[in-house]
Structures are given as C-alpha cells and as structure tokens.
Amino acid sequence: xxxxxxxxxxxxxxxxxxxxxxxxxxxxxxxxxxxxxxxxxxxxxxxxxxxxxxxxxxxxxxxxxxxxxxxxxxxxxxxxxxxxxxxxxxxxxxxxxxxxxxxxxxxxxxxxxxxxxxxxxxxxxxxxxxxxxxxxxxxxxxxxxxxxxxxxxxxxxxxxxxxxxxxxxxxxxxxxxxxx
Length: 180
Description:
This protein is about 45% helix and about 25% strand.
C-alpha cells in the first residue's frame, strides 16, 4: 500500500507506514508474521463496502398515486448495495430491482411517505452483501416529485472500524517489540 493510500484511509496516524514496509517477524505469540498484503486487501474491501451510496429517484404515478420509482442517478456504491452486479440503475424501476427481496415493501412505502408528506425518513434493512447479511440504512428526503437517498452499510462500517483497531493493535505490538 502506498503512503498516500494510508493517508486517505486515515491510517498514517496509526504509525502503519513503518509496519507496512518492514519485514514481518515470525513471532507466533502475537500472531506474526503480519501478512501485509492480506491486511491491505481486507482493509480495502472493508473500506469499499463501508462507502455510502447516494441515489435519486422520481415517482412514477398512476393518477395521483405513486406506483413505482425510476432512478435518475445512482452512485456505484448504491448500485452495489442494492443489486451487486448492475452498475447503472438509471431508467430502472425500483420494483424491478428489488423484486423478490425481503423488505421491498418497506422501502417502497418509506419512499412514498417521503414524497407524499415531505418528511425525511430513515429505515434499516438487512441485505445479503458478499456472502454476509448486513444492515443497510436508507435515509430519504424529498426531492421534487421524488426522493434523494443515502444508503449506508452499517455492518461494513463496524467491520472496517474493527479492522482498523486490529491493525492499530498489531502496529503497537510490533512497535513495542522493536523497542524491547
């Protein structure tokens, strides 16, 4: 991992530059050798999944009633959280993308209430992401005759924080061992 990547992820302050570029020590008592590349991959994956998604949708109406929503915009993170394999959601219907998924009705109803009453709403939903079940928060606000939504994978954020703590602990152990 390059030093600028460490800075971007907020890890430089943990003293990881010396740990990441040092040779691993085969000390089994503290779980060494530190597989730097494995930690890099785990942190990169955790950071990617913890990146919030953003999307905007407009209401599709039949008369005065909202019957569906179409995407105007969806970030890659939002598309990944909602459907995993579909990079561009523009023009897709919410009901099509969420078909067969638990909580589809709750998400649709939340967005309808936001459009009809103008009040911001948040909803937590469990979704399958990369072979795990995660809790994703949908925060929606009214945007014209539609919604702007921020998707946050709360489980991924917790995993990223735990990995950062693990890396900091390993860095502290390696540093203490170096001065012993």
